[in-house]
Amino acid sequence: ECTSYLGPAGFDAVQVSPPTEHVLGPMWYTRYQPVSYKLESRSGTEQEFIYMVRECRKAGVAILVDAVINHMAGPTVLWPPEDEKKECGGEGAKHADCFGWSGTPFGSRLFEHSNVPYTREEFHHYQDNTLSNCAF
């Protein structure tokens, strides 16, 4: 779109949704529930992202990236519908495995997976929070 429309039409920049790996689901807000910092998402691969940025720059269009840096996905399933709101991990009918768009496991508020460069101790945690994922 940068070379065929945006650049020729005089657009200076375009904003893209977060390109990082996110929870599964077709809803717009899934892109705002990151599970890792891999550039693998519903929008494409890291190589495709790099190509898009290069092509847009050639067309004179800057890329503004909407980045989620203040949270990671909560410990509940958003997709598929039959598993929605189940807790990540564990056993039984109220639990399900949680994987991101490119297969990264997530869900533990202990950050026990190596997909993020920090630990639980680096966050404030409100113990009585009954909502996760903004009540989605």
Automatic annotation (TrEMBL):
Annotated GO molecular function terms are: alpha-amylase activity; cation binding
Report the cofactors: Ca(2+)
Q: Which Gene3D superfamilies match?
A: Glycosidases
Task: Report any one BP term from Gene Ontology.
Answer: carbohydrate metabolic process
Name the InterPro entries for this protein: Alpha_amylase (IPR006046), GH (IPR017853)
What are the UniProt keywords, alphabetically?
Carbohydrate metabolism
Family per similarity comment? Belongs to the glycosyl hydrolase 13 family.
What is the protein's given name? Alpha-amylase
